[in-house]
From TrEMBL:
Transmembrane segments: none annotated. It comes from Microbacterium luteolum (Aureobacterium luteolum). This is FAD-dependent oxidoreductase. Its cofactor is FAD. Residues 329-400 form the Reductase C-terminal domain. InterPro entries: FAD-oxidoreductase/Apoptosis, FAD/NAD-bd_sf, FAD/NAD-binding_dom, FAD/NAD-linked_Rdtase_dimer_sf, Reductase_C. Coiled coil: none annotated. The keyword Oxidoreductase applies. Keywords: FAD, Flavoprotein, Oxidoreductase. It holds the Pfam family Reductase_C. Gene3D superfamilies: 3.30.390.30, FAD/NAD(P)-binding domain.
Length: 416
């Protein structure tokens, strides 16, 4: 009797993972968004730093001012692997993307994906002088913040900061709280004017000077010595340490020729944060078409990055595509006050509606047609919340101004 031949059972190949490139805030929120949307498949996160996702805003604030560096991890490795079931691969960088083949090369190895989310963010724009480059301290990563803190802890008492944007301003405030002498340098005559408007930018400069910061406008550094720097106007400034925060550059050069559309700021996405078939993006590098503002936007700040990450994570694993749009919002903490901005200033001048309230309260609004399009405030938390609501709802200019200006007991209460 012949033994019947039994065909071997076919083994189904597991589906390729969802891969997230970038282990920052946007990447973490993308992973959480995918899991919350019901995705139970394999999920891999690749990050070029050795740290799991951490919070960057404290690096120029609490990380410098507290007696010991605060915990900034958003989730530790155990939470990422146990609660989110992430295959976490840190200290690695993506090198090439093959959109047609649905694969990405990392460390010389090609990895297949079902979908991929690009959340690589920005790298610090470099600054170089002819000598003493070892005395220059960028401030973007946790390693940067640790290095600078160690230098200040070692007794450096004179700090020069190149770049008077949000990071430079926060660092100036933090260093002054430690008793460090600070010189703040801006290559532009009015730092942050494009982001905040003329009046708010001027108010911020006045705050720096009121707290003992030597603000030098319209100049940069030409030479760095052991205990001083030479500026482009020929003056010399005493400095033990030179830190800089002069903006970032999108970490997207490895995507050239991949089929993902790039622009000078990063990645061009559609309204679903999709950059190519099965390719999504989130965070600082993303521009998207905003229906609310009727233009393409990019908002490289904490809140939009978190919102985009969650949306990209959901869209990457579901058939029900969700359009992304938001009212951009960002903030900074300086000298015990919160500076906030919401909306999009579309070239209209910011109109100051209050600058004489307790604790230096300041509020300016921008108008687009018959609508409020942006608001900037110092020590105006509740007013900014109300302004963001009015922008999102398309409230008329007159109605928004009536609430924001005429009722100081509700929306317009200056707070620290």
């Amino acid at each position: 009797m012949e033994t019947p031949i039994v065909a071997p059972e076919s083994v189904e190949e597991p589906a390729p993972p969802l891969i997230i490139i970038g282990a920052g805030l946007a990447g973490l929120r993308a992973a959480e968004g995918a899991r919350q949307a019901g995705y139970s498949g394999a999920l891999m996160m690749i990050g070029d730093e050795e740290h799991p996702p951490y919070d960057r805003p404290p690096l120029s604030k609490d990380f410098i001012t507290e007696s010991a560096p605060p915990e900034v991890l958003l989730r530790d490795v155990d939470e990422l692997t146990r609660e989110l079931d992430i295959d976490l691969r840190l200290g690695r960088s993506a090198e090439e993307l093959d959109v047609a083949g649905r694969r990405v090369r990392v460390g010389g190895e090609w990895l297949s994906y079902s979908s991929i989310i690009l959340a690589v963010g920005h790298r610090s724009r470099s600054f170089r002088t002819e000598r003493q480059e070892q005395s220059l301290y960028p401030l973007r990563t946790m390693a940067d913040a640790l290095r600078l803190r160690e230098r200040l802890d070692a007794g450096a008492g004179r700090l020069a900061i190149l770049g008077a944007g949000f990071i430079g301003s926060e660092l100036a405030s933090s260093a002054r709280s430690r008793g460090v002498d600070v010189t703040l340098l801006s290559a532009t005559p009015r730092p942050l004017e494009g982001a905040l408007g003329t009046q708010a930018a001027d108010a911020l400069v006045r705050m720096h000077r009121a707290h003992g910061v030597d603000v030098r406008l319209g100049c940069t550094i030409t030479e760095v010595g052991a205990s001083s720097i030479v500026l482009s106007d020929g003056s010399e400034v005493a400095a033990d340490v030179v830190a800089y925060g002069i903006g970032g550059e999108p970490a997207t050069e490895w995507l050239a020729g991949s089929g993902v559309e790039l622009d000078p700021g990063g990645i061009v996405c559609d309204e679903f944060l999709r950059a190519a078939p099965h390719v999504y993006a989130a965070g600082d590098i993303v521009s998207w078409p905003s229906e609310l503002f009727e233009r393409r936007l990019r908002s490289p700040h904490w809140t939009p990055a978190a919102e985009q990450g969650a949306c990209a994570g959901r869209n990457a694993v579901t058939d029900a595509q969700e359009p992304f749009d938001t009212v951009p919002y960002y903030w900074s903490d300086v000298y015990g006050k919160r500076l906030q901005f919401v909306g999009v200033a579309s070239g209209e001048e910011m109109v100051v509606v209050h600058d004489d309230l307790p604790d230096g309260g300041f509020l300016a609004l921008a108008r687009s047609g018959d609508r409020i399009s942006a608001a900037c405030g110092i020590a105006m938390r509740r007013a900014i919340v109300a302004a963001r609501r009015h922008i999102r709802q398309g409230t008329s200019w007159s109605d928004a101004v009536e609430e924001l200006v005429s009722d100081p007991r509700s929306a317009l209460v200056a707070t620290r």
